[in-house]
């Protein structure tokens, strides 16, 4: 990713650890070699299992894993396991493995560390996302939305609520923005009558949703202006888009973070309002006055 997850020079990747372990096999005792063989055959277990759990699975004593770790330069099994856990935090492994890692933190009494990691990653994601763009790029995208005949905001899965929240806020000021897919529909059908003069805001992160990629491809063929939000410059919805924003989505959680995505959409909405015609302010005032009149808001005491 662009300016995201920059490798730590002190970070020892699991692939390097496994390579060193494989090279040391011949020098290990039979029991330690048995532990090493298990690690080489089941590397995903290392980051999510306690020493007792992995020793039981390998049918050796826990201390055997300590000796194995020391044989390749680590002080103990916890140090040996750290690169594998870091790989999970970086989002390289599968969602189920990340979920198992979260549960392993709870079993090990490390939830305070998880809390700190969650807070740090949320703040870092927002900082990296905004550092990767600027007000000029944001204004260019907002200009496209303001000038559009109609703007479609596409998000599925976790991004469905993000797309609908953006549309909900926009509806206070303008009525040319809608979230897709509509209930009971699919995105490519919702874009059937869209064309030049329209805008598609699309968002997806790894693993990229096929329906979003297909809708973006269709939008390009039909001449829409595409604004893409994704986690990599190599994302299929970013390549070839008119406006693209790279959102940092790293998290200790088992699913990509939406924090920076939401923050960027809020910034884009602010630029849209700032860039729109003066009557937009009147629309927002009427919207809120109507809600107060209808008793939707709790009266202030």
TrEMBL record:
Stretches assigned to the HTH rpiR-type domain: 15-91
BP-aspect Gene Ontology terms: carbohydrate derivative metabolic process
Gene3D superfamilies named in the record: Glucose-6-phosphate isomerase like protein, domain 1 (3.40.50.10490), Winged helix-like DNA-binding domain superfamily/Winged helix DNA-binding domain (1.10.10.10)
Domain SIS: from-to ranges: 141-278
Keyword entries, A-Z: DNA-binding, Transcription, Transcription regulation
An example molecular function term from Gene Ontology annotations: DNA binding
Keyword RNA-binding in annotation: no
Pfam families the record matches: HTH_6, SIS
Record PANTHER family: GLUCOKINASE, RPIR-FAMILY TRANSCRIPTIONAL REGULATOR
The protein's name: MurR/RpiR family transcriptional regulator
Lineage per the UniProt record: Bacteria, Pseudomonadati, Pseudomonadota, Alphaproteobacteria, Hyphomicrobiales
């Amino acid at each position: 990713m662009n300016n995201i997850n920059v490798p730590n020079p002190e970070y020892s990747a699991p692939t390097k650890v496994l390579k060193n372990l494989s090279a040391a096999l011949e020098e290990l005792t039979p029991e330690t070699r048995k532990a090493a063989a298990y690690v080489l055959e089941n590397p995903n277990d290392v980051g999510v299992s306690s020493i007792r759990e992995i020793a039981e699975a390998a049918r050796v004593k826990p201390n055997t894993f300590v000796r194995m770790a020391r044989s390749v330069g680590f002080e103990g099994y916890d140090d040996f396991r750290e690169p594998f856990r870091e790989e999970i935090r970086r989002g390289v492994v599968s969602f189920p493995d990340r979920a198992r890692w979260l549960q392993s933190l709870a079993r090990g009494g490390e939830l305070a560390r998880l809390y700190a990691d969650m807070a740090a990653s949320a703040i870092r994601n927002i900082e990296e996302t905004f550092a990767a763009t600027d007000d000029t790029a944001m204004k260019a995208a907002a200009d496209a939305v303001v000038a559009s005949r109609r703007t479609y905001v596409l998000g599925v899965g976790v991004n469905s609520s993000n797309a609908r929240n953006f549309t909900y806020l926009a509806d206070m000021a303008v009525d040319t923005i809608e979230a897709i897919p509509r209930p009971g529909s699919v995105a490519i059908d919702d874009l059937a009558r869209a064309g030049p003069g329209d805008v598609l805001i699309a968002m997806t992160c790894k693993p990229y949703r096929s329906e979003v990629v297909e809708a973006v491809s269709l939008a390009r063929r039909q001449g829409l202006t595409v604004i893409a939000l994704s986690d990599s410059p190599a994302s299929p919805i970013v390549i070839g888009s008119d406006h693209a924003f790279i959102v940092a989505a790293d998290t200790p959680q088992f699913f990509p973070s939406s924090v920076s995505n939401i923050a960027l959409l809020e910034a884009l909405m602010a630029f849209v309002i700032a860039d729109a015609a003066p009557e937009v302010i009147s629309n927002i005032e009427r919207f809120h006055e109507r809600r107060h009149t209808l008793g939707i808001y709790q009266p202030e005491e």
